[in-house]
């Protein structure tokens, strides 16, 4: 006994067999051309995205030169809020030229930012401490706290 679905399929096959040979291939050709067109559109979009990323990188490198780590360290020890944040970020996540990644120092500088009573300090600074200090092992966290205390002492002494 044929179901309605099988009956319709059989009717379609009979109609398809009665078409000329070139017309029988038309659905497959349409699917193939559609796939090629979609692939070309995706490639074009990726190329445009890569070009935009490349242009943005060129613009950022031209308009914002990388800060000198030593001058950033000096500014941070003089109490400069943004220099402290930049230094912490460099140590914790993305080192600046001349700076090495160091999770302990990153945490220490984020603790300095949070404990320096800066008027600019906000919840992002608390989140940074949770993120970068919370992932440290207990002994490394203690080392970071000691270093932060030392940095705070230098800042209170006038950055010396």
Give an account of the 3D structure.
This protein has about 160 residues and is mainly α. The protein folds into 2 domains: about 5-65; about 70-155, no CATH class. Helices cover about 75% and strands about 0% of the residues. It contains 8 helices and no strands. The chain has helices at about 5-15, 20-25, 25-65, 70-75, 80-90, 105-115, 125-135, 140-155. Helix 5 (about 80-90) runs antiparallel to helix 6.
Number of strands: 0
Extract low-pLDDT stretches. Answer: 59-63
Number of domain units: 2
Mean pLDDT: 81
Q: Please write the string of helix (H) and strand (E) elements.
A: HHHHHHHH
For the termini, the CA-CA separation is 95 Å
Main sheet characteristics: none
**SS-based structural class?**
mainly alpha
Coarse morphology: rod-shaped
Strand percentage: under 5%
- The whole-angstrom Rg is 31 Å
Q: Number of DSSP helices?
A: 8
Portion of residues within helices: over 70%
Write the layout of secondary structure elements.
Blueprint: H1 4-17, H2 21-24, H3 26-63, H4 69-77, H5 81-92, H6 103-115, H7 123-134, H8 138-156
Helix pairs in contact: 4-5, 5-6, 6-7, 6-8
Summarize the structure.
This protein has 160 residues and is an all-alpha fold. Helices cover 76% and strands 0% of the residues.
Tags for this entry?
160 residues, mainly alpha, 76% helix
């Amino acid at each position: 006994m044929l179901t309605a679905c099988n009956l319709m399929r059989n009717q379609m096959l009979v109609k398809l067999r009665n078409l000329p040979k070139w017309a029988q291939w038309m659905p497959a050709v349409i699917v193939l051309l559609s796939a090629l067109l979609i692939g070309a559109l995706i490639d074009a979009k990726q190329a445009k995205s890569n070009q935009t990323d490349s242009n943005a990188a060129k613009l950022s490198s031209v308009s914002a030169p990388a800060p000198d780590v030593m001058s950033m360290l000096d500014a941070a020890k003089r109490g400069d809020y943004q220099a402290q944040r930049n230094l912490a970020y460099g140590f914790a996540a993305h080192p600046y030229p001349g700076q090495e990644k160091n999770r302990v120092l990153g945490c220490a500088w984020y603790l300095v930012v949070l404990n320096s009573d800066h008027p600019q300090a906000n919840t992002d600074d608390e989140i940074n401490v949770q993120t970068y200090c919370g992932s440290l092992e207990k002994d490394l966290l203690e080392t970071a706290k000691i270093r932060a205390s030392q940095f705070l002492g230098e800042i209170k002494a006038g950055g010396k």
